[in-house]
Amino acid sequence: MIVIRVALPVPIRQHFDYLVSELTAPAVGCRVLVPFGSRKLIGIVWQVSPDSSFALDKLKTVIEIIDPQPVLPPILCSLLSFAADYYHYPLGEVLISALPALLREGRNLADYQPLAYRLTEKGKALDSNQLRRAKQQLALWQALEQSDLTESMLLQQFSRAILNQLIKKELVESYPVAPSPFVAPTRLAAGLQLTPNQALAVTAINQAKGRFERFLIEGVTGSGKTEVYLQCIAQYVITQQQVLVIVPEIGLTPQTLARFQARFELPILCWHSALTDSERLHCWQQAATGAAAVIIGTRSALFLPFKQLGLIIIDEEHDQSLKQQDGFSYHARDLAIKRAAIEHCPIVLGSATPSLESLYNADNKRFIHLALPDRATGYKVPDFTLVDLKQQVLQFGLADISLAHIRKQLSLGQQVMLFLNRRGFAPALSCQECGWLTECHRCSAFTTYHKQSRQLICHHCGASKAIPRQCGDCGSTQLVPLGQGTEQLEQNLQTLFPDTAITRLDRDSTRRKGALNSALDDINSPGARLIVGTQMLAKGHHFPNVSLVVIVDVDGALYSSDFRAPEQLAQLLTQVAGRAGRGGSQGRVLLQTHYPEHNLLQDIIHNGYAAFARSALLERKHTQLPPYQYLALFRAEAHNSEHCQQWLNQVAGLINKTPQLQLLGPIPSPLERRAGKYRWQLQLYSANRSIIHTALTSLLNEFMAWPLTRKVKWQLDVDPIDLS
Ligand code: ADP
Ligand code: ZN
Ligand code: ZN
User: Fold this and answer.
1) Interacting residues of 408 by C-beta distance below 8 A, sequence separation 6+
2) Pairing of strands 588-593, 384-388
3) What is the pLDDT of residues 77-89, one digit of tens each?
4) Distance 321 CA to ligand 3 centre (A)
5) What architecture does CATH give domain 383-423+485-618?
6) Is 87 within 8 Å of 330 (Cβ atoms)?
7) Beta-bridge mates of residue 60
8) HSE-up of 643 (CA within 13 Å, CB side)?
9) Hey, whose CA ends up nearest to atom 11 of ligand 1?
């Protein structure tokens, strides 16, 4: 018997050793089933014959070795172990969470061999006239007459429903195939004629083939970043190397997919949270076997195994959703850079509004900076016009001048986009007699009035309740909506423009499966239209028919205590504005505000994001905030506010004498109460990353044993993005 060390998905920061027969000893990265207390757990073999171990007679024996070959190849093992270390998260949980659910449950990979499809004897003998009424079925039948198709190739062109119909008619059958690497194309579809700046970017990136290099493309909205990605990808797939493209939002994957598929006749797969478990496993296998040429995915695509990864692209690298919020709070951009280093491949970060972190790295020559300062179409990036709302009569929150512009564009058959970052009908219901407001009883926040679903919903904890008939304070029945959300704006716009089609794009309107895609289809069809939406509108969408963007209200975001708030607002405004004039016309942006003289607005309007970012970086330098110092954040939540404060005080007490480490707190979090729990935080700053790292390591060893630690729900967030 020999000893193996197994990483188990338990929140305990300790290793677990087991015995296994030397003859069948599994390799590092294989799954094993082991006894753990009274349970059985699936873990990952982490070391074979570790240097030191517990006494052999105390060790239990492995129950089952699940994999003959590692499911986690060495590259992933090193990435994940780096991540566990860096984010101070238990290794076993990090390793297991990187696996698709079916593998976590212990399913056998061999049982999920991909399928290919061919015509049955009946299918081969079919007279095509019999399918003339079913065009799609006919097309699939014809495609299969040419050659068999693997499942992923087939589903790129045809829906599963069509396939199932032919299977039901016994015209088509499946058979398992061993996945093999995709075949490199012999020639590539020609791309667009590149602008000189685009050409420089493509050349620079392609010259880095085969070695680790970091690029930041700072390209204004519509500068043709996607075209640059496509032409780079072409150079990699032609030598049979795979490419990983990470996008921030699931809504962007189908759009990006369509654009990529139009360019390459290659297996391109999507990875995102809406996939079923078996779709995920399929994608995992296609990546691991090299069958997939390109994978477009949201942040966790970073943990897919690749047979031959040649290039990583992170689109919209500034986007906050690249950072996981709960639990293992990794940043996909930062880990992707680590992955590129391990894989010895280049990585490209792209954005019109790069994060200050990435600009800082570009200034320090850690990243190679590639600029695309102009739109590829020749039109200018739209200018902002400030609309001063002071002393104006507003109609449904819109100034006369805004309405005049909207009318004009609609009469020209153009689309107008209205941005309002509040979903629902109104941010609260209010009593006209006494001013009482509907509040969430579990959070320090108001509840949003949703008229369509007839509910008050808390956007922080998700709790919903029926609309009250009476004021909770004085009993009056005079309850009215206070303020305007997208649902109300849509309704009001319909009153103002009864003949114009309106599309609303927010989390509520896109909840139903397929709703987002059908909204995007509407927007991409020509003709006058109003588009109302939240920050969802800012997420890299290509809306060719929008000529005017109206930013209805951002005043609430101008005064925030979070040091990242100005950066985030500047990004949001620039991205939303960037949706205008992307097709064949010059765009225009109206920004309504009560604070036209506000510094940030003036900066963005007169100097643009790039200049704003440089001055914001200077300010971060003066105040010694990230990226000039490193930051780690402890959050504590409990029903008892004092427990949080006490616990964080104890944590602070352990490290407040550490040289070169500054503490801020404990302080109550900006949202002091959420879902019934009080929330506090402690911030750790240091100019030296290893000082924070060492402090955290010793802290975690120490406080896990405190009785108070069990009374609070705590989280450690390394490089936090959201301080709420
Ligand atoms: P970004 O990703 O930077 O927002 P896109 O790649 O979506 O920009 O390009 C914006 C528009 O410009 C698209 O309609 C695209 O087809 C067009 N475009 C991009 N590159 C070129 C080029 N070199 N010549 C002409 N049009 C281009
Ligand atoms: Zn009242
Ligand atoms: Zn709530």
Assistant:
1) none
2) parallel
3) 999 999 999 999 9
4) 22
5) 3-Layer(aba) Sandwich (3.40)
6) yes
7) 18
8) 17
9) 222
Tell me the pLDDT band of 326, cut-offs 50, 70 and 90.
confident
CB 271: neighbour CB atoms within 10 A? 28
The residue to which tokens 């709790």 are assigned: 463
Of 557, 561, 538, 550, nearest in space to 600 by CA:
557
Structure tokens at 210: 């085969």
Residues 249, 250, 252, 257: is their CA dihedral positive or negative?
positive
Pairing of strands 455-457, 529-533: unpaired
Q: pLDDT value at position 132?
A: 85
Give dist(CA 709, CA 644) in Å, integer. 9
What is the structure's pLDDT at 14? 81
How does the average pLDDT of the chain come out, rounded?
92
**CA 597-352-201 angle, 5° bins:** 145
Domain ranges of the chain: 2-110, 115-176, 196-203+211-230+240-372, 383-423+485-618, 630-718
| Residue from 368, 416, 15, 406 nearest 205 by CA | 368
Architecture of the CATH domain 196-203+211-230+240-372: 3-Layer(aba) Sandwich (3.40)
pLDDT (mean) for 436-459: 93
CA-CA-CA-CA dihedral for 382, 388, 394, 396, to nearest 10: 40
What letter would DSSP give residue 110? G
Residues 6+ apart with CB under 8 A from 126: 119, 141, 171
Name every protein residue with a CB atom under 6 angstroms from any ligand 1 atom: 192-195, 198, 219, 221-227, 376-377, 542, 582
Q: How far is the CA of 428 from the centre of ligand 2 (A)?
A: 14
- CA–CA separation, 454 and 682 (whole Å): 39
Atom 23 of ligand 1, nearest CA residue: 194
CATH number for region 2-110 = 3.40.1440.60
Q: Chain-centre distance of CA 631, in angstroms?
A: 22
DSSP string computed for 559-620: S-S-TTHHHHHHHHHHHHHTTTT-SSS--EEEEEES-TT-HHHHHHHHHHHHHHHHHHHHHH
Compute, in angstroms, the gap from residue 311 CA to the centroid of ligand 1.
21
Pair of tokens at residue 231: 């032409």
Measured from the Cβ of residue 463, the count of other Cβ atoms closer than 10 Å reads 17
- Sheet-wide strand order for 149-150: 149-150, 115-119, 172-176
How far apart CA 261 and CA 282 sit, in angstroms, is 19
Q: Is the Cβ–Cβ distance between 293 and 682 less than 8 Å?
A: no
Return the best residue to mutate from 200, 226, 227, 256 for the ligand 1 pocket (most ligand atoms within 8 A of CB).
227
